[in-house]
Please model this.
Amino acid sequence: MGFMMRIINYYIEIKVVVGYAIIVVVATYIGYSFSRNYVNKYRIYNQLYDFLNYYKLEVGYSQKRIGQILEEYAKNNKVSILKLEEFLEFLRNDFYDKDKFYFKERIYILEEKEQIEIEEIFNDLGKYDLIQEKEKIEILLNRVKNNLDLAKENKNKYSNLCIKLGLITGCFIVVLLI
Model:
């Protein structure tokens, strides 16, 4: 009878330890999900900066229309957080709502001011003559570069911090439960 009780006690202890491990893993995952916001914000600005550089080159040295430039960029960049290939389909659709901004659901992690800025960038593309377009792109590139640098700094500073804070929180909860 004593042998059976020891086995049952070990079984219960194993369940408790597994429960504690699950708490730590869940808390760490929550921290990881918060860190993804910083990483994705950086990725959005990085891709936007890359696209604007590509657009600047294509506008200056080719006779292509904006749709063709977007299509080529989307084809060459399969891993895309902005999903420009879907944006092209959205633009080609005859029934799309011109007042609805396509990227709103893609850039939800950005602040409202940043979302409006990106909306203005895509609304202004192709509305000027060549010289004004190049000037406008230079201004946009400088603004996006500043935001990219800030997003990179925040990613480096806070991304790992969120994961570590999640891990420490999970361990703290386990210590409280013990």
